[in-house]
């Protein structure tokens, strides 16, 4: 599964340097979009119920799981999801015992997920106007996850941290994504739910949109959120 469910903070995103409009009047010629908490959302209610039953505050498991020393090896493709579960369980064992710790780790790894259909629709429309690239901190299971979501055809390219072995907000992953889109970085719109990732994209000259709800994406896409007009 992909990780990092926790949304970023609510600070206003750093504005990217103004880009000259394209011939179509846009400030961008490609869309680079995050996956988790923008397109894909997880149901962590079963995990929260297990935490309550174990006498733990809700969110304890994810706090341990997403600590950089546990999370980053998974996102860089250096360990398997099963090894990640073992690391999460090790961080919980003293508090709840080994059996329950593994149950909590597995519940996080196996949390069900869904795609936001409104966001998917907006991105499919955008792709009729400009290239679309998914840029995600993901595991090596990403391709299978996209298949389950029915989204293997959503984007022109997918840039995964586990494949590229570099994760947001490292500037290298943004450069890779812009290259895959075939567009200079200053002509890219970058959409993400985490402020640190937005800030990194803005520092590279990208137009940015901090995602909280579909309306944020619709505003950022502007005319690209509309259906393309097909000539008769």
Write a structural description.
- This protein is an alpha/beta fold.
- It has eleven helices and seven strands.
- The strands form two sheets. The chain has a five-stranded parallel β-sheet with strand order 5-4-1-6-7, sandwiched between helices. A two-stranded antiparallel sheet has the order 2-3.
- The termini are far apart.
Task: Provide a brief overview of the structure.
This protein has 232 residues and is an alpha/beta fold. The chain has helices spanning 45-53, 60-65, 68-75, 81-96, 98-109, 117-127, 142-149, 161-164, 171-181, 195-203, 214-221, and strands at residues 30-33, 40-42, 113-115, 132-136, 157-160, 188-192, 207-210. It contains eleven helices and seven strands.
Return the average pLDDT rounded to an integer.
90
How helix-rich are the residues, as a percent range? 40-55%
Stretches with pLDDT under 50, minimum 5 residues: 1-23
Number of helices: 11
Rough outline? elongated
How would you sum up the major sheet? 5 strands, parallel
Number of E-type strands: 7
N- and C-termini, Cα separation: 44 Å
Task: Output the radius of gyration.
Answer: 19 Å
Order of helices and strands: EEHHHHHEHEHEHHEHEH
The strand line-up of the biggest sheet is 5-4-1-6-7
Structural class: alpha/beta
Strand percentage: 5-15%
Task: Indicate the topology.
Elements: E1 30-33, E2 40-42, H1 45-53, H2 60-65, H3 68-75, H4 81-96, H5 98-109, E3 113-115, H6 117-127, E4 132-136, H7 142-149, E5 157-160, H8 161-164, H9 171-181, E6 188-192, H10 195-203, E7 207-210, H11 214-221
Parallel strand pairs: 1-4, 1-6, 4-5, 6-7
Antiparallel strand pairs: 2-3
């Amino acid at each position: 599964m992909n990780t990092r469910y926790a949304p970023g903070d609510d600070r206003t995103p750093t504005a990217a340097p103004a880009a000259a409009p394209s011939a179509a009047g846009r400030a961008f010629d490609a869309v680079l979009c995050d996956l988790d908490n923008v397109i894909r959302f997880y149901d962590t209610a079963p995990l929260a119920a297990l935490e309550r039953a174990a006498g733990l505050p809700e969110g304890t498991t994810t706090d341990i799981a997403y600590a950089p020393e546990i999370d980053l090896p998974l996102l860089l493709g250096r360990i398997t999801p099963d090894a990640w579960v073992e690391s999460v369980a090790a961080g919980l064992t003293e508090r709840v015992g080994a059996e329950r710790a593994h149950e909590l780790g597995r519940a996080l790894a196996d949390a069900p997920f869904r795609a936001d259909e409104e966001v998917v629709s907006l991105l499919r429309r955008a792709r009729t106007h400009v290239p679309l690239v998914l840029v995600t901190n993901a595991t090596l299971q990403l391709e299978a996850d996209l298949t389950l979501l029915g989204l293997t055809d959503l984007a022109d390219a997918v840039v995964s941290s586990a494949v590229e072995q570099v994760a947001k907000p490292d500037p290298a992953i943004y450069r890779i994504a812009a290259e895959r889109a075939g567009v200079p970085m200053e002509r890219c719109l970058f959409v993400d739910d985490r402020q640190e990732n937005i800030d990194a994209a803005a520092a590279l000259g990208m137009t940015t949109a901090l995602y909280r709800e579909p309306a944020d994406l619709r505003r950022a896409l502007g005319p690209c959120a509309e259906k393309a007009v097909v000539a008769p």
